[in-house]
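Colleagues,

For the teaching module next term, I've prepared a clean inverse folding example: a structure given as tokens, and then the sequence designed for it. I'd like students to try predicting residues themselves before seeing the answer, so please don't circulate the second half yet.
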């Protein structure tokens, strides 16, 4: 009886011990599971907190204008492959975008930079000063002109930086052996043209050799060569010795061919005759082509200006001019160039303009380029125009 009671007590003790061990084991498993879960949770939370925003979210930077949108990952800025981006482009191009007027907005997931589109330049330009003092007594150097016009690009090119010019103007100077006159022209005209807010280029068309001078043919060549470089829509043809005395006399094109040098000191600031179209004139590309450019067969001095007037009037156009005060100009006094004697055939040719203009002009132009020189102040193109 006693033996049985002791045996039962031992069984009960073993059962109780096993139960406690199993409970501790279960508790240990639960605790380890909770610890493992907490470790995983804290690891995940710590990893998420430690990430930078552009690692959690595909962050994008959008560079937006009215015309250009470029989308690319933020982390790729500076080492970006455009093949992996979405690019939408329309005209105008980047040179019409005003970079200084920018706004940048940064959030946790985007950065936005906007460039404002340049507005058109006002007409008239607000930078004009009116009447100018023009003197030729003190010589000028090309170095001086270069230093005073730092905004010029190679080849005498310029465009305003704060607005889009209303016209693209090629200034064409028929030229030979007139270097001192050219210095004065560049000295006075570059600042004037910049104040007029023109997108312009200066082309000095230099006749090679010592054959008889052909001014009108050189102007045709200037038209053709300028268009090889830029999409000009206006062409101003200027003698190298004529300087405007008022910057309100804008060197641009109008609805009718424009005569700009209307009141020269050489003629006591009066128009010598109503048909006069010499000195400085402006024609749009359409107007120039409508008259088939200028004649190529006027060798020597005189006649080509009247021929051009006849071409204009025969096509139903008229000459426009600024008023006599705004159109004042000074001429650099000089002796007539050698091999530029008056053309004895000029009067006969002028009478036959209507008969010859369809076959003598830009459509029959022949010449050879000898050399092209690029200076910050101008593009000089030396050409062989042939012989009379």
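(Answer key — instructors only)
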């Amino acid at each position: 009886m006693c033996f049985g009671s002791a045996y039962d007590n031992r069984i009960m003790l073993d059962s109780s011990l096993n139960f406690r061990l199993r409970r501790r084991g279960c508790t240990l498993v639960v605790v380890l599971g909770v610890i493992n879960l907490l470790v995983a949770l804290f690891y995940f939370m710590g990893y998420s907190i430690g990430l930078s925003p552009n690692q959690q979210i595909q962050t994008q930077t959008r560079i937006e204008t009215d015309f250009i949108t470029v989308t690319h990952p933020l982390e790729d800025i500076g080492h970006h492959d455009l093949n992996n981006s979405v690019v939408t482009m329309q005209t105008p191009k980047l040179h019409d975008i005003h970079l200084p007027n920018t706004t940048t907005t940064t959030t946790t997931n985007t950065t936005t930079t906007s460039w404002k589109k340049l507005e058109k330049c006002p007409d008239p330009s607000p930078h004009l000063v009116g009447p100018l003092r023009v003197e030729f007594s003190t010589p000028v150097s090309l170095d001086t002109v270069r230093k005073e016009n730092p905004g010029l690009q190679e080849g005498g090119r310029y465009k305003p930086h704060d607005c889009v010019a209303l016209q693209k103007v090629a200034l064409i100077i028929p030229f030979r052996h007139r270097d001192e006159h050219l210095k004065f022209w560049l000295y006075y005209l570059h600042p004037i043209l910049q104040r007029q807010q023109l997108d312009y280029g200066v082309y000095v068309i230099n006749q090679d050799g010592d054959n008889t001078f052909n001014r009108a043919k050189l102007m045709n060549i200037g038209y053709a060569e300028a268009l090889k470089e830029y999409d000009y829509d206006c062409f101003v043809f200027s003698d190298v010795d004529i300087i405007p005395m008022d910057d309100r006399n804008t060197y641009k094109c109008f609805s009718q061919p424009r005569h700009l040098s209307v009141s020269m000191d050489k003629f006591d600031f009066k128009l010598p005759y109503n048909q006069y179209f010499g000195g400085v004139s402006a024609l749009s590309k359409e107007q120039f082509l409508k008259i088939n450019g200028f004649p190529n067969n006027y060798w020597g001095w005189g006649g080509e200006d009247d021929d051009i007037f006849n071409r204009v009037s025969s096509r139903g156009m008229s000459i426009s001019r600024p008023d006599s005060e705004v159109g004042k100009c000074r001429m650099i006094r000089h002796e007539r160039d050698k091999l530029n004697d008056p053309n004895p055939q000029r009067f006969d040719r002028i009478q036959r303009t209507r008969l010859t203009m369809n076959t003598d002009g830009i459509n029959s132009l022949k010449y050879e380029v000898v050399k092209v020189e690029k200076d910050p102040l101008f593009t000089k193109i030396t050409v062989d125009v042939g012989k009379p």
